[in-house]
Amino acid sequence: MSQKVTDIYNELQWRQLVYQSTSDRMGSWLLERPRTVYAGFDPTSDSLHVGHLLPLLMLRRFQKAGHRPIALVGGATGSIGDPSGKSQERNLQSLDQIEANVVAIRRQMSELLDFTSSDHSALGPALLVNNYDWISQFSYLDFLRDVGKNVPVNVMISKDSVKNRLENPDVGISYTEFSYMLLQAYDFVHLNRTYGCELQLGGSDQWGNVTAGIDLARRMAGAEVFGMTCPLLTKSDGTKMGKTEGGALWLDGKKTSPYHFYQYWRNVADEDASKCLRFLTELSQEEVEHLDRCRQTEPERAASQIRLAEWLTELIHGAAALNLVRQATEIFFGGEIGKFESDDDLNQIFAEVPSSRLAASRLAEGLAIADALVEAKLTKSKGEARRVVVEGGAYVNNRRIESETHQITTADLSSPTMIVLRRGKKNYALLRVVE
RNA sequence: GGGGGGAUACCAAAGUGGCCAACUGGGACAGACUGUAAAUCUGUUGUCUUCGGACUUCGCAGGUUCGAAUCCUGCUCCCCCCA
User: Fold this and answer.
1) Which residues touch A361 (CB under 8 Å, ≥6 apart)?
2) How far is A355 from A127, CA to CA, in rounded Å?
3) Contact flag, residue A403 CB and nucleic strand B, below 7 A
4) A86 pLDDT higher than 70
């Protein structure tokens, strides 16, 4: 059981994760003794996504350094909607929905933080709290008398998150969203009183909310507490990291498959790779710098991206899932698909590839390639299918079909009942033979 | 209320009796190149086909004609100007 703290501030600095800090002696303060730190997460969906990863990993780093992290899910604040970074008023979610989201998020967090053992910190395991538990206890009147009295409105309206909305007469801001900051600020006070929490972490867009909490803690409790923000994870083109065509990149394997999760990181632009390695992995400084050099000398090997993708996939989905993803990647971007003894392996590798049923009798008498493509729904019509074949874009088991009149037979089965069809570079479909 | 213009394929936009399954651009899809990148280049882009062609499509419904996206009548919707 290690009770000592390691120099996390130094680590955060070389990772360039310190954006703003309320104290210039943060480093030594963190070395004095284990501290309790918290970061908040809004339960806006039933899964965390890549946008949550950075602060979550921050908490993980603090835990590994000997501090005690508190992950706060905003069952109360999330029901209000944070105006920070939002140009428009948000729709309120139902409390039932939020409750369900909290349950799901809690499960995901327990994969990254240790909520059970005291191995990491003398202060004990990580904590998971829901601010709905204490904020819902307040009556409106109590809240105004105890909390609101300590908050000057002129300070609130000078915060960027509020100011931006006030200056835009078209959208404005509701009293509800305006109050968000107050609730979040009170969270810090509550956590300080209840758990001795002294530091709030957040993305740089949370600076206003963080400092609001610090001010409130001083006024209400006379407590000196601290705040620190990390940079936002953005791409070099200015857009958000973790955005896919289908929306967010989720941590839930059912919403974003491990394969797609892996591929996202595998395809990170060179310019963004170093930032991702520093922000999102726990690789050593030596290794990160080594990968930086490799990217200069032999970018085509994509060593950084592969390391990043493997590290994150293993962290989020586990070693077994990573292994399958590796196999799938090899096949999807590699050569031919050989014969598989059983359907199981192919099934797992092509788990998310759409499949269609095909009567065994049709295969026995030979199936024209164009018909097969239509059956597999890879093309909308036979005309389109023929065109694809002529263009050289049709593949059976990753072997290109040269002839428009090619027939598919039982000899093309890759496993006892499956044939792998492909249109173009990576549009796969399975044909499953049924009696 | 009066006057004018328009509706064409996924989107934009030509076509104003046969040469129109319909110019062109974008998108999309394939291919080449490449680092599973970006850019670039090439091709394809209604359905079916025994590859000869057949069939459906230019807002909707009728009509004229040997023949209509194109002309006529009615209907629906959209835009602009004036009041």
Assistant:
1) none
2) 44
3) no
4) no
Measured distance CA(A135)–CA(A378) in Å, rounded: 53
Nearest to A178 by CA among A199, A150, A148, A201: A148
Residue with tokens 């994870």: A233
**Which residues of chain A between 43 and 72 are close to nucleic strand B, CB under 7 A?**
none
Give the CB-side neighbour count of residue A37, counting CA atoms within 13 A: 32
Looking at the predicted structure, is the pLDDT value of residue A373 above 50?
yes
Q: Is A142's CB less than 7 Å from nucleic acid strand B?
A: no
pLDDT band of A82, cuts 50, 70, 90: confident
Residue A295, φ and ψ in degrees, nearest 5:
-70, -30
Pairwise CA distance, residues A221 & A223, whole Å: 5
Tokens of A186: 């009170």
Nearest-nucleotide field for A301 (CA, C1'): B35
Strands A243-244 and A226-230: unpaired
Q: Could you give the count of Cα atoms lying within 13 Å of A127 in the half-sphere of its Cβ?
A: 20
Tell me if residue A240 is catalytic.
Answer: yes
A37, A59 contact by CB (below 8 A): yes
DSSP, collapsed to helix, strand or coil, labels residue A296 as: helix
User: In a 3-state reduction of DSSP, which class is residue A143?
Assistant: helix
- Residues A32, A9: Cα–Cα separation, whole Å: 12
Q: Report the distance from CA of residue A386 to the C1' of nucleotide B24 in Å, as an integer.
A: 26
Q: To the nearest 10°, the Cα dihedral for A167, A172, A176, A181?
A: -20
Answer whether A124's CB lies under 8 Å from A118's CB.
yes
pLDDT, tens digit, 9 for 90 and up, residues A224-257: 999 999 998 888 777 778 777 667 889 998 888 8
Q: How far apart are CA A139 and CA A22, in angstroms?
A: 32
ipTM value for the complex:
0.80
Residue type present at position A113: L
The partner residues of A20 in beta bridges, in order of sequence, read A229
β-bridge mates for residue A399, sequence order = A396
A298 touches strand B (CB under 7 A): no
Name A128's bridge partners: A71
Which domains does chain A show, CATH number per domain? 8-230 (3.40.50.620), 243-333 (1.10.240.10), 343-434 (3.10.290.10)
Q: Which nucleotides of B are covered by protein (CB under 7 A)?
A: 29-32, 34-37, 43-49, 51
The number of beta carbons lying within 10 Å of the beta carbon of residue A272 is 19
CB atoms within 10 A of CB A217: 26
Q: Say whether A49 is catalytic.
A: yes
